[in-house]
Design a protein that fits this description.
By secondary structure, the chain is an all-alpha fold. Helices cover 79% and strands 0% of the residues. The N and C termini lie far apart (63 Å).
């Protein structure tokens, strides 16, 4: 069995979860509760979520603009 350090689990895996899931994982054990409630984790989680949302909505906006341009070009031709 491979041992994965708690820091890796916390800052590389659990940071990507939704807030509701994080609250559920706090019940796993005391160490997880303390880690998931810590200021560094919460700060990194908020930053990760903000970056994800910016990337997601940027792609959505670019897709919309591209479709709008293509439809405009089709109408003009």
């Amino acid at each position: 069995m491979v041992y994965i350090p708690f820091d890796i689990i916390l800052f590389e895996i659990l940071i990507r979860l939704h807030g509701i899931s994080i609250d559920q994982y706090k019940c796993v054990c005391r160490q997880w509760n303390e880690g998931l409630s810590s200021w560094p984790f919460m700060s990194l989680h908020v930053n990760y979520v903000e970056e994800y949302l910016v990337r997601y909505y940027s792609c959505l906006l670019l897709t919309f603009i591209f479709k709008l341009l293509v439809s405009t070009l089709l109408i003009l031709t």
